[in-house]
Write a structure and sequence with these properties.
By secondary structure, the protein is mainly α. It contains four helices and no strands. It is elongated.
C-alpha cells in the first residue's frame, strides 16, 4: 500500500510542476509579444490575454500549491481551468501572433 501512495504522491508532484511550468510559460510568452500583433491576428488584446493568464495562474497556484510537501492537486477544477486557458493561448493565440510577426 505504501508503494501505491508513493506513486500517487510523485505523480501528483510531476503533474503539478508541469502545470505550473505551462502557466508560467504562457504568461511570459504573452508578456513578451508585441501588443499590436494581437488585434492584427484577430485575437483578444494583449492586456486581456495577459489578465486571463495571470489570474488563471494565480488562482491555479493558490488552489494547487505545487511547492507544498504533498504536491497539491493537479486535477482540481480551478487548476484544470488555468491549464485550459494556458493551453488555448499556446495552441491558438501564440501561433497566430508568431505568423503575424514573421510576415513583417
Amino acid at each position: 500500500m505504501q508503494t501505491v501512495d508513493q506513486l500517487f504522491l510523485w505523480t501528483n508532484r510531476v503533474l503539478s510542476w508541469g502545470e505550473f511550468a505551462l502557466w508560467v510559460t504562457a504568461v511570459i510568452d504573452c508578456a513578451t509579444r508585441k501588443a499590436g500583433a494581437f488585434p492584427a491576428a484577430d485575437k483578444l488584446t494583449k492586456p486581456a490575454w495577459l489578465a486571463i493568464l495571470v489570474l488563471a495562474a494565480l488562482f491555479g497556484y493558490l488552489v494547487m500549491q505545487p511547492f507544498s510537501a504533498w504536491g497539491g492537486d493537479p486535477t482540481h477544477f480551478v487548476s484544470l481551468l488555468a491549464t485550459c486557458a494556458a493551453g488555448v493561448y499556446l495552441a491558438d493565440v501564440r501561433p497566430a501572433i508568431q505568423e503575424i510577426t514573421r510576415r513583417r
